[in-house]
Design brief:
heterotrimer, A alpha/beta (356), B alpha/beta (495), C alpha/beta (300), A: 356 residues, alpha/beta, eight-stranded parallel β-sheet, 15 helices, 46% helix, globular, C: 300 residues, five-stranded parallel β-sheet, 10 helices
Chain lengths: 356, 495, 300
């Protein structure tokens, strides 16, 4: 069910022309091609050449009307997912989970236990799919890697002074390199919200490109990079759209809502907005980027709403763990209970799923 | 009829959904609509009574073409009886303290809430509109309307119409089929709050929720004759609006019928309010919040199958963004789910009647014949019933019939403009003036545009929003008078 | 033999007031206006269908400017009308006295009331939106505001009867309609058009833009059907429609107005019983207003 995050390229569509039209000729030096190969062809190559050009680009993105966005997300939330559709969606959701433990109290035992759960979510039903990844702090990467040996479950590591992101760049890069060296398949970095909110977009951009560089392994491959915005701190949807484009231009493989460590984490509207961003980015550049809502998604009903949004905003191309993930922990058990209900016809209870 | 449209070999869009995640049917149970009698009479003087005539009409589920029930074609004598019952009830009802009238309306609102599922299913079956809309929009709005006007009943002294404003008397109310129960609420709630009594005629394709509402009046203990329901077609409506003992006529429907009622009442002392057709422009400027604008355009024209008088049936898009906007619009249209109205995931239901389908078909054919380019997303339509694919016309000019006439169906005509002044000029270039939409992130441009649009409702960065506190009604040939809000009281007060 | 030479009065040629100018009727015809005892007073232009059409064109052309001017400015203009009238008070007293067969004292009271009525409406221009508008508390995150807007071009049939009809009545039907930003084509009282035609002269010197008020004299029954059926007229005040039947009767005019769904202000049940000195209230002020409701989401 799971697999490596891949980068898919499409021919730039008409939207690319639009961005090209709007921003062509702003600057001359190419900074992007290495990070987003499609961007060069789409006329977006130079937007990050200077603070001014990057700002003009990001502030030239279409605005987001909060009420309209939230209304659309709410309407999609009323979809009724039943029977076969529900069974499909539950298994898909399980397979998309980045099963996460990010506690100060994490131990080797806890992480191993979580990995066991990820490999075999429902001991009573071997047909239950595996999760996509186990997400841990960098010092637990080796433990997780070892525990997952022989599976295709990815090890994702948070990095860059997660969750605050408040550390000097060399520290963040070392944090990243350390996790990659320990075997992390995926890096979940946090952006510098302070820099973003104070308008230093180029600093954020450069930091992402530097971390992306730190994801490289000696053999030339790279850990895949998820960029966390901490949307709860960005406050406005306009900021989320700008952060999405900023991260994608800088080479993010995934864009992710939240650390799960602040008051407001993933919400349906913020995720919908990011889905629209990756849709538009692919139309503009041909580069497909994944989306990961994280934090606060606890129930099957929640997960269904997110999958409906993916389905109706992006369609099949994103309906796989390659392109969509849930950053969650307790969600898995609720999905498993619902799954058992579908299988047996009886309502399940918390004693019939494992607590890990 | 249905077969005709289905045969149309329309260009097919590439739907973004490839089918990995297909929603299984999620049908609401038709049984939730409660018992539907095989035949209905009228509701007069608090009783369900037979018509004096023998002619019966049939109401059909437009999604299945199955007959749901027979109902009476109201005769002149039936109308006489109903008006007499309303007249008889008027003295006591209008003399009742406002606080007591208020409590009846509050009761009605509560019972509507209690029976909301039943009403939502019944409305969907009789009208063809999706259960998602009757459940989440129509029926909640009905309750809200009664709640809102209930509160006015004992506060009329403060409404700005002078001290102790008096009711008009007996109100004849004729409503359309597009929002059967909601239109009933828009009419009955303010009329009763202000102390009038009413005779209401529901549309001949959608009488069932009005007849069910009669039951609610009985449950609420509403005094006999305060609300009377007479069913029938336009003949019954004409008899009612022309009745000499009617003090007030309120009509919602087409402009031609509204015009004929206005003619009919010329020279009389009968008061008239009209809520008629529209050809609303939805203006998209190049700096619009594009995703929400697309959503608003879609909601503006495909909500309720486009059977909406204030539907945003003309899209005016700034030329500099038309390509990207239309691409986004088509992509979004491709995700619309057309089909069984009782399926909770249906976005676009059935066309209300074969006659309406014929009209939509005729007008869209004329659009093609006049040279506009037609596009619809691919979607399967059910084998029986009245259906029409969501349709987009590009290359439309102001002179085309599809840009001027009210289609009242899921058909959007796209025109372009270059400057704000041109947008306003084109938007106003119609005898109608019910509603309009503006999409731009620039606040001053919204206000500039809104102040120039000849339309009674202007939605800026939103569309098709309604609220009992918000006045609704048109300029020019879209009618006169307002429904909703403090303004909505005026039509039922002798001021 | 007196050595004081007899001086012949200069008689006034009454003309229409259309688009800020004083044309004769395109027909070149006039009709005799007499006082209440049948004595000849003056000749008045006999306005025609074509004069009416021209007046509608002038009124339409003036809508944009007049409705677009600030309410404060409209109030200043209306107050200026009162000032100008005050200066010509004696002329209007004489015209009202002859038109309605009143003594000078009663006529003076009516003219004073008419001047005061302009002042009353001058004060209304920037209040009517506050009284007739509304901030609506809708159940959602939306700013929702209803504001009254002028309907556009309004045909007004000036009153032909009732105490004070010839001038106070005339002012009472014109002032509220233009106070809110509409423009007007008024058919003066057929038998008492002189105060109306003189009012045109006052309006022309009162900073009122040309075309905002257009005054036609002639047979109301001839002018009214043209106004009622004109597709570029948005509303019609039938106050002066006193013909019992024929195309100039109120019922026929209302039926004609229905073709374009004009806003119609019906005549009183008994126009002769009208007392124009009564406090006017807001009915006429709000009869030719359209309520526009604007929604906007509230978000960040």
């Amino acid at each position: 069910m799971t697999g490596h995050i891949s980068v898919r390229h499409r021919n730039p569509g008409p939207l690319a022309d639009r961005y090209a039209r709007r921003y062509a000729g702003l600057v001359t030096m190419s900074t992007l091609a290495a990070h987003a190969p499609g961007a060069a062809a789409s006329g977006l190559a130079d937007v990050a050449a200077s603070e001014a050009s990057l700002r003009r680009f990001l502030h030239g993105l279409p605005g987001v009307d909060q009420v309209g966005l939230e209304a659309r997300a709410a309407t999609l939330g009323t979809r009724s997912i039943k029977t076969t559709a529900k069974a499909y969606a539950i298994d898909l959701a399980i397979s998309m989970i980045d099963l996460t433990t990010l506690e100060g109290a994490d131990t080797v035992g806890k992480v191993r236990s979580l990995c066991t759960k990820g490999r075999n979510p429902d001991p009573s039903d071997p047909t239950a799919p595996r999760v996509a990844a186990i997400c841990v702090y960098p010092d637990m990467v080796a433990t997780a890697k070892e525990a997952l040996r022989g599976t295709d479950i990815q090890v994702a590591s948070v990095a860059t002074a997660f969750p605050a992101g408040r550390a000097a760049l060399p520290v963040k890069l070392a944090d990243t390199a350390d996790a990659v060296a320990a075997g992390a398949d995926e890096i979940d970095m946090v952006i510098d919200r302070g820099a973003f909110l104070s308008g230093r977009y180029l600093d954020v951009f450069n930091e992402i490109t530097a971390v992306k560089e730190a994801c490289r392994r000696p053999d030339g491959t790279s850990a895949h990079l998820k960029v966390i915005f901490e949307t709860g701190e960005l406050q406005t949807y306009d900021n989320v759209r700008r952060a999405s484009w900023l991260a994608m231009l800088a080479g993010a493989d995934f864009i992710k809502t939240s650390t799960g460590k602040v008051a407001v984490n993933a919400t349906p509207p913020v995720t919908l907005l990011m889905l629209e961003a990756v849709r538009d980015f692919r139309a503009a550049t041909g580069v497909q980027v994944g989306v990961k809502p994280a934090g606060g998604i606890k129930t099957t009903k929640d997960a269904m709403k997110y999958l409906v949004m993916v389905n109706e905003t992006l369609g099949d191309d994103w309906l796989s763990p390659h392109w969509f993930r849930f950053g969650a922990s307790s969600l898995l058990n609720d999905l498993l209970m619902q799954r058992q209900k579908l299988t047996t016809g009886r309502y399940s209870g918390p004693d019939y799923v494992t607590v890990d | 009829m249905a077969k005709n449209t289905k045969k149309t070999d329309e260009p097919v869009a590439q739907a973004p959904r490839g089918g990995l995640f297909e929603y299984a049917p999620a049908p609401e149970s038709p049984a939730a609509a409660g018992d539907i009698a095989t035949s209905y009479g009228h509701f007069i003087g608090g009783e369900f009574v037979d018509s004096s005539g023998s002619e019966a009409l049939k109401t059909v589920n437009p999604a299945t073409e199955q007959v749901l029930a027979e109902f009476a074609q109201g005769t002149g004598e039936d109308v006489d009886r109903a008006v007499a019952a309303a007249r008889k009830a008027f003295a006591d009802w209008s003399a009742l303290p406002g606080s007591e009238r208020a409590k009846y309306l509050f009761r009605i609102a509560r019972i509507v809430q209690e029976r909301s599922r039943e009403l939502a299913v019944l409305e969907s079956i009789d009208n063809g509109k999706p259960i998602r809309e009757t459940r989440d929009f129509d029926v909640p709005m009905v309750a809200a309307w009664f709640f809102y006007y209930a509160g006015w009943a004992d506060k009329l002294d403060y409404a700005g119409y002078g001290p102790n404003p008096k009711p008009v008397g007996v109100a004849a109310q004729v409503i359309p089929w597009n929002f059967p129960l909601m239109m009933l609420a828009w009419k009955i709630a303010p009329a009763l709050a202000t102390g009038n009594t009413v005779v209401l005629k529901p549309a001949e394709t959608t009488p069932l929720t009005a007849l069910r509402f009669a039951e609610i009046c009985r449950q609420a203990g509403l005094p006999k004759g305060v609300v009377n329901i007479v069913t029938g077609d336009g003949r019954t409506g004409a008899a009612l609006t022309a009745h000499p003992d009617v003090d007030k006529v309120a009509f919602t429907g087409s402009t031609p019928v509204g015009r004929s009622i206005a003619r009919q009442l010329a020279g009389s002392r009968t008061r008239l309010s009209l809520e008629l057709g529209g050809k609303a422009a939805n203006i998209v400027f190049d700096d619009a919040p594009i995703d929400q604008a697309v959503e608003g355009i879609v909601n503006g024209i495909f909500f309720n199958q486009g059977h909406v008088c204030c539907a945003g049936s003309r899209l005016l898009v700034q030329e500099s963004v038309q390509d990207e906007f239309l691409e986004a619009l088509k992509r979004r249209m491709s995700t619309l789910r057309v089909g069984d109205p009782l399926d909770k995931n249906t976005d676009v239901g059935a066309i209300n009647s074969s006659a309406q389908l014929a009209r939509i078909t005729e007008l869209t054919d004329s659009g093609e014949a006049e040279g506009a380019e037609r596009w619809s997303p691919s979607c399967d339509l059910p084998g029986t019933g009245y259906w029409f694919r969501p349709t987009l016309f590009t290359g439309v000019s102001q002179a085309h019939r599809i840009a001027r006439e009210e289609i009242f169906g899921p058909v959007l005509s796209v025109l372009t403009f270059r400057t704000p002044a041109e947008a306003v000029e084109k938007a106003n270039n119609t005898p109608y003036g019910l509603s309009a939409g503006i999409w731009t992130e620039k606040g001053s441009r919204i206000l500039w545009t809104a102040s120039r649009l000849k339309a009674g409702v202007v939605w800026a960065n939103t569309f098709n929003k309604f609220d009992p506190a918000s006045p609704f009604g048109g300029y020019k040939e879209s009618g006169y008078g307002r429904e909703g809000g403090r303004h909505g009281l005026e039509a039922y007060l002798d001021v | 033999m007196s050595d004081v030479a007899l001086r012949l009065d200069v008689l006034k040629t009454y003309k229409l007031y259309v688009g800020g100018k004083f044309p004769r009727s395109e027909s070149g015809r006039v009709y005799e206006v007499t006082d209440s005892k049948g004595q000849w007073l003056a000749n008045a232009p006999l306005g025609t269908r074509k004069d009416t059409r021209d007046a509608v064109v002038a009124a339409r052309a003036a809508v944009k400017g007049w409705s677009g001017t600030t309410a404060y400015n409209r109030g200043q203009v209306l107050y200026r009308v009162a000032e100008m009238l005050q200066g010509r008070r004696e002329q209007f007293i004489a015209e009202v006295a002859t038109a309605e067969g009143l003594g000078a004292k009663k006529a003076a009271a009516l003219v004073d009331a008419a001047i005061d009525r302009w002042v009353w409406y001058a004060g209304w221009t920037d209040k009517v939106a506050q009284v007739a508008g509304n901030a609506n508390p809708v159940a959602g995150p939306y700013f929702n505001l209803s504001t009254p807007e002028p309907t556009g071009v309004v045909g007004v049939l000036a009153p032909q009867a009732g105490h004070g009809f010839s001038f106070l009545g005339l002012v009472s039907v014109i002032a509220p309609v233009i106070a809110t930003g509409n423009t007007v084509v008024v058919a003066a009282a057929t038998d008492a058009p002189l105060p109306a035609l003189s009012l045109g002269e006052v309006l022309a010197t009162s900073d009122l833009p040309g075309g905002v008020v257009n005054v036609l004299s002639g047979r109301t029954a001839d002018i009214a059907p043209t106004l009622a059926s004109h597709q570029d007229v948005n509303g019609i005040d039938l106050t002066g429609a006193i013909q019992p039947d024929g195309p100039g009767a109120a019922a026929a005019l209302e039926a004609a107005a229905a073709e374009t769904l004009k806003r119609v202000l019906r005549p009183a049940a008994d126009p002769a019983a009208a007392d124009w000195t009564e406090a006017p209230g807001t009915k006429r002020l709000t009869s030719f207003l359209e309520t526009k409701t604007v929604w906007h989401p509230m978000g960040i």
